[in-house]
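Deviation from plan, reported transparently: protoporphyrin IX containing FE complex.
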Amino acid sequence: MTQEDTTTPIETDGVIGGRDHFTDFDLDSPEYTEHYDEVLDALLDRCPVARSEAFGGYWVVARAEDFKRCAVDHKTFTSTRGFEPAHGNEGDGGMKLYPLQIDPPYQTRWRQALGPYFGVKAVAPLEAGIREHADYLIDSFIERGSCDFVAEFAAQLPARVFFGSFLHVPFDRIGPIQKATDDAIRGPGEGRGAAWGIVGEFLTGYLQERAEQPPKGDFVDVVLAGVETDEGEPAPYEHKLFTMIDFLAGGIGTTSHTLASMAHHLTTRPDHVERLVAEPELRDNAVEEIIRIFAPVTALGRTATVDTEIAGQKIAAGDLVMLSEAAACRDPRVVDNPSEVELDRRVPVNLAFSYGPHRCIGAHVARLVMRTALDEVLRRMPDLKVAPGEAPMFSNSGVARNMDTLPLVFTPGAREVVAAESP
Ligand code: HEM
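Because the crystal trials were delayed, the predicted structure below was used instead.
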């Protein structure tokens, strides 16, 4: 069946910013970056399955119900053949992230082994360390009364938590590897490959060191022990390394964006700052709402294994189908007034973390980092504002939504942390 045969006509009223996002969607287009909210709302309202001709073509699924149906049905929609259009659904030179790019039952064995280290109770003891990192970063700019909240806080905290709290890298040795991670994720395009090389080397060395040491009772022991492949073989070393890389890559840019979005939201809603200061019990709701509305993963891919359909749209075997977290989690069929942060609301399922077998394993870590950062921002810089004449800068890169800069001003304060590494 050819692509033309499978395509039923889509209404062509999706023109926003000069581009028809219903028939010519592109995750990387400036029109999507610049009219982000409007495009998502239009897809939800009028185009449950949009078409893109970029990178060989793909579909975009917007509505929550369709999203969930595809996300749970891994037999029809496999994760094994790429998650982003730039690398097509033939994968990226055979390199895969684990468990992101494998299907059950192998994926289930990894999740069962790793899951216990990422539950609410398991991650709770990390809070004190996260708070120390958050305060250390705030110290680096608090006396100045101004900062770029992205570069000086949001882009740094998640990597500091990963290396410090999960890999036990001493506080005073985190700086260089956090910087390499930032260069790999946010640095200029030409330097990213080399920066990923440094990060990969660091993780390889770390796994080798740990393999020679007695178990520490943490998730790295489980990664090193591995699980059985579907062929009944022990997981090869590359699967273990790419599990570590998945945990790093999956948690950094995502949490950075939601941290920056949280600070930006506070600048736009002094009434929310007031309520969150007076009623700390609302802070968990605020975190959940901010992750939902400012979902950092705009869409992640699956590949159809058979000819099928989604919301009446025929999909051919082999087609790449991008499931849009960003759209689905603000579907008005599921959430009233979906684009507003409502501090009294708690949605039962936050699709920003996806759904089904691949739903984010790090969700409780992300929530804890967000909640701890919110506490410290409210305590230390409650009158934060966007610097006069400035505005946050956004970009979309592949599957990610990014806030690139957020210049803030606030009343200067005193430094607090006496740490081994001084800012
Ligand atoms: C606000 C922050 C975060 C958001 C919105 C987010 C979002 C997501 C999404 C949408 C997926 C699903 C992928 C799919 O359906 O194919 C996912 C998977 C994953 N996330 Fe997160 N994530 C966040 C933070 C984290 C953190 C902090 C970690 C690490 C501690 C992490 C580790 C992972 C891993 C390893 C997977 C793959 C799970 C699997 O395929 O079974 N994420 N995340």
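The domain at 3-409 is CATH 1.10.630.10 (Cytochrome p450). We consider this an acceptable substitute for the interim report.
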